[in-house]
Amino acid sequence: MEHKIALLPGDGIGPEIVNEAVKVLDATAQKHGHRFDYTQALVGAAAIDATGDPYPAATHEICEKADAILFGAIGDPRYDNDPTARVRPEQGLLRMRKALGLFANLRPVQIFEPLIDRSPLRREVVEGTDFLCLRELTGGIYFGEHTREGDTARDVCTYTRPEVERIVRMAFELAAKRRKLLTLVDKANVLETSRLWRETAQQIAPEFPEVTIEYMFVDNAAMQIVTRPARFDVMVTENMFGDILTDEASVIGGSLGMLPSASVGERHALFEPIHGSYPQAASKNIANPMATILSAAMMLDHLGLPAEAADIRRAVGDALVAGVVTEDLVEKNGRAASTSEVGSYICSKI
Ligand code: IPM
Ligand code: MG
After folding, report:
1. Could you confirm whether 318 is annotated as catalytic?
2. CA 24, CA 41: separation in Å to the nearest integer?
3. Catalytic residue (choose from 55, 79, 142, 278)
4. Which of 9, 33, 121, 241 sits at a 20 to 30 Å CA gap from 216?
5. Structural domains in the chain plus CATH codes
6. Which is catalytic among the residues 26, 53, 130, 247?
7. pTM to 2 decimal places
8. Atom 5 in ligand 1: which residue has the minimum CA distance?
9. CA of 276 to the centre of ligand 2 (A)
């Protein structure tokens, strides 16, 4: 079968890691007799440099027409320390999420056995961790009004019932297919938006009698993610809490360089590693491509190719066992493989 893929490498290490994911996708296509038809588009600082716009109309059009989007990273130090910059690379990502209606961000937190001892947490705490964080992605404080009047600044957090309903319902559906425990993370003891989330979840809960729902304040959740990560199954939360908690959760497994994600809506789906653009490593062929390769596996699941996706995950596991890993994962005295060596090794195991 033929699938149209939009490739958005973006900034920093984005182009290198997306390149490795494409190699792996092509190896998979060859084995299973598929064809991936790629169209590349600009986003982020790379797009600002070329067009002045971090999410140009031409990029949006390519994304709209694609069956799926594979995205690298966004961000550039030239903009990070300049609070007066009017155009920022990150605006491209946020506009893209909104324009494509990608309201749900799925971030699976899984442990790879060969990496357990690299975790900042003790082995006995980490073992058995396997949860899915579902982050709302197109609402809340990220998309409220951001204003400044004199010495007063304001960022408004708004949620509507339909916005909460669609993501909470998706969370229930995912939990029903897993271990059937759903944790809604909020700050309902302080925030009105959180009370709307809780009320909405309580109304939906009777539709899913097989799923147990629990409610947890975000500060408590931040603590339990590092003390008892294995207790969670599916976690659902609003945009900013999800941003913060998923960075925290991502290192449980030993490296931020391993975590894939999917951002999905009713009509479009985008797949990206959760790490950023890592500008210090850009163009050095040293960055870990595994999170992007695992994001490509999530993309294949989405395209209805689960056997192909499983092949990729197994091949990544083979690379970990063989120690063919980049410097972020290399053992003491071990030799770090380059980005492209890791990609090629994974291809050879497909
Ligand atoms: C993420 C990132 C983005 C976010 C930034 C780059 C705007 O941190 O995808 O988690 O905050 O959503
Ligand atoms: Mg983030």
Report:
1. no
2. 20
3. 142
4. 121
5. 1-105+255-350 (3.40.718.10), 120-253 (3.40.718.10)
6. 247
7. 0.94
8. 90
9. 8
